[in-house]
Amino acid sequence: MSDKTVQLLSLTNDVLENLRKTYLNDEQVKEFGLEKCEEQFHQLLVKLATPPAFTTLRINLHVVTGDKYTIIQSVKEEIEKQYLRKGWKPPEISVHPTLTDVLVIPNRGPNINPDQTRSFKEVTVDHDCGMAVLRGADVFVQGIMGAHQDLQEGDNVAVYTDIDGVCRRGMTQTFTGNKKYIGSGVMKASREQIFVTKEKLSGVGVEMNQPLYEAPSLYGVLPAYIFPQNLPSIICSRVLDPKPGETILDMCAAPGGKTVHIATLMNNTGRVVALDKTPQKVEKVAKNAAAWGITCIETYPFDSTQAVNEAADVSGPPPYPQASFDRVLLDGPCSAFGQRPCCRNRMTLNTLKSYSTYQRKFIEKAVQLLKPGGVLVYSTCTITLDENERQVAWTLQNFPELSLEEQVPHLGGHGMLGSTLKREELQKLQRFDPTIMNNDQVDVNSDTIGFFIAKFRKICKR
Ligand SMILES: C[S@@+](CC[C@H](N)C(=O)[O-])C[C@H]1O[C@@H](n2cnc3c(N)ncnc32)[C@H](O)[C@@H]1O
């Protein structure tokens, strides 16, 4: 099967049906009508298969040398150089209207130029590589699955992503499976160097000079100054509102984008405990903290569902006694259906359904670890009701010591209808959904990944 013009996110049938029921739940249909809900669900599948319309970068305000203006100038110059080298018009880079430490770069596309570029010899890349290319990356050698037999360094190539994950590595024939055109570029190595040479090649394999979407390639660009981060993730740490000197727990921290942001908002004073189950991932948190000159973060590989122990000491490694933290961020494992772009997700319905039960284990521990008066932020990068609004309803029902709080900043939409939450409670939730978010206007606050944020305060001891 060849590449289609309008790409929809491809899901297993039962997951598709489950998500459809979410978006067409009785309350939604009663409020907006069946036709509108159907249209919105279709739009969702289209949006999830395409990249957000903007790239956002958080600036490191903690750097000792250089002020914000100098950093912004350096970033602009670096990106401008990159665009000019690729033969593109430099983008209009601006500071976010509300978040003054965020730079916004509009992405351009889709740039469909099929006649010229699609006649080039083909390179096929795996799904993850393809999705990164749609967000501005070049093709790294490790992502290349198939390449025409006599391809040489310097050749122009048309790049396709293998949607179903069936192209065998090293394939020489043109891949005829389900594929999507993601642009064209120039080979930075020959086919032989990529597949035949003994020493393992790394780095850029195809520099994308005519991608489907023009967006900055940010790998290795000023890592001490900028952190590419999706807008809802940036908002999430702001909603937590950590203060200098406080003790914060980040229960599922890796790779650490939010952890480092939290520590930055605290002016690197106080204590941020960052836990993650996977040791290699925890190393990334430490690396990101070091790159930003942050010293108030402690990282530990640990299962957060085991993080409470009354006999433990509050200082040092986990576990910790109850009421140890001023604020807790629970940005835990989720079905991640809000990630954009994604052309294909083979998650089973059982796996999808398992997340809300797993998340409740973390919520229970988070509530215990919070001091009275403390703040819990619960977030996911998904769009399901079970992991979001219904999870909030369950939390309020099971932990009467929690109250649901207003969020600042609130730049996303409100909670979706379809749980037992009241309208005034839904107003306090922040749901980023590229379709629910409304209107015809695509702006940096609306055309984002799918994301959800709830903020609670522990108002009394149970
Ligand atoms: C959504 S990601 C966190 C992203 C992170 N907060 C950030 O902004 O960079 C979820 C993380 O939960 C971690 N995780 C899964 N189960 C866990 C557990 N039982 N204890 C601690 N971390 C866990 C995963 O390894 C993964 O890194």
CATH architecture of the largest domain: 3-Layer(aba) Sandwich
Task: Please report the first level of CATH classification, the CATH class of the largest domain.
Answer: Alpha Beta
Report the bound ligands by name, code or SMILES.
Answer: S-adenosylmethionine
Quote the CATH topology of the largest domain.
Answer: Rossmann fold
Secondary-structure-based class equals alpha/beta
| Estimated radius of gyration | 23 Å
Secondary structure: number of strands: 20
Mean pLDDT: 94
Describe the protein in words:
This protein is α/β, with parallel strands linked by helices and 462 residues long. The protein has four domains: 10-48, no CATH class; 54-106, no CATH class; 114-211, PUA domain (Archaeosine Trna-guanine Transglycosylase, Chain: A, domain 4, Roll); 230-458, 3-Layer(aba) Sandwich (Rossmann fold), CATH 3.40.50. It is built from 13 helices and 20 strands. The chain has helices at residues 13-23, 26-32, 34-48, 68-85, 114-117, 127-134, 191-195, 231-240, 257-265, 279-291, 349-369, 389-398, 423-428, and strands at residues 10-11, 54-59, 94-95, 102-106, 121-125, 139-140, 144-147, 156-162, 179-187, 204-211, 226-228, 247-250, 271-276, 297-301, 325-330, 344-345, 370-380, 402-404, 430-432, 451-458. The strands form four sheets. Strands 12, 13, 14, 15, 17, 18, 19 and 20 form an eight-stranded mixed sheet that branches. Helix 2 packs across helix 3 and helix 8 crosses helix 9. It is globular and about 70 Å long. The termini are far apart. The model has no long low-confidence stretch (mean pLDDT 94). Bound molecules: S-adenosylmethionine. Residues 233, 252-258, 275-278, 281, 303-305, 331-333 line the site of S-adenosylmethionine. S-adenosylmethionine (SAM) binds at residues 233, 252-258, 275-278, 281, 303-305, 331-333. This is SAM-dependent MTase RsmB/NOP-type domain-containing protein. The active site is at 381 (nucleophile). One of its GO terms (biological process) is methylation. Pfam families: Methyltr_RsmB-F, PUA. InterPro entries: MeTrfase_RsmB-F_NOP2_cat, MeTrfase_RsmB-F_NOP2_dom, PUA, PUA-like_sf, PUA_sf, RCMT, SAM-dependent_MTases_sf.
